[in-house]
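hiii so um. not sure if this is the right channel but i have a protein structure encoded as tokens and i wanna go backwards to a sequence. like what aa goes where. can anyone help
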């Protein structure tokens, strides 16, 4: 089996993940239809626009196929809009299509229109001492997590990076930096999953 990480490529910032994954020895497969899920080892849900992504996921059952994979603890990492897709609850947007896999409540566009994009050096203890340059673009934050969700990073009192089993979610876009540590962290989840 090839070492492929799938990237949902219906919409949004999917191209930028390729370079970082290649540096870590993984090839990328762009996922656009159910058959594309067959030989991947993990899946990234990119940033973009979660309502648009949700609509496209419903055309040929791809969204439901991804939910089935998640039911087998398949590793999935959502960035920004991808984090919204993973959340069970969304404040004020409770009916938009999503995978609804992580026990958390998120707020979309949570940093407001005035400061819709910003960068910050984020402390992420699981990745070591060096702060991670986190790029937030019309980002959501996680308002509330259930006890089974691990908090990996907070910014100004809000959770912005979390893990539940093999599901990983960040409010920010690690693919827009040259720091491979978050992709590396996800690769470790993938490798542990496939070793079992
Ligand atoms: N604001 C977008 C949404 O609500 C997410 C933005 C992003 O992915 N950069 O879906």
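sure thing!! here u go:
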């Amino acid at each position: 089996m090839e070492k492929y990480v799938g990237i949902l490529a219906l919409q949004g910032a999917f191209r930028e993940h390729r370079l970082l994954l290649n540096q870590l020895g993984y090839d990328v497969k762009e996922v656009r239809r159910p058959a594309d899920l067959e030989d991947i080892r993990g899946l990234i849900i990119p940033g973009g626009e979660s309502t648009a992504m949700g609509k496209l996921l419903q055309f040929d059952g791809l969204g439901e196929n991804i939910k089935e994979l998640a039911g087998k603890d398949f590793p999935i990492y959502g960035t920004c809009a991808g984090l919204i897709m993973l959340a069970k609850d969304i404040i004020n947007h409770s009916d938009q299509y999503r995978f609804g896999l992580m026990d958390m409540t998120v707020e979309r566009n949570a940093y407001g229109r005035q400061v819709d994009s910003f960068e910050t050096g984020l402390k992420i203890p699981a990745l070591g001492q060096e702060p991670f340059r986190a790029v937030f673009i019309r980002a959501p934050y996680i308002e509330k997590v259930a006890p089974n969700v691990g908090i990996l990073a907070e910014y100004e009192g809000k959770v912005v990076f979390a893990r539940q089993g093999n599901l990983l979610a960040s409010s920010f876009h690690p693919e827009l930096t040259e720091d491979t540590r978050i992709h590396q962290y996800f690769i470790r989840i993938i490798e542990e999953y496939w070793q079992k």
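oh and The chain has five helices and twelve strands.
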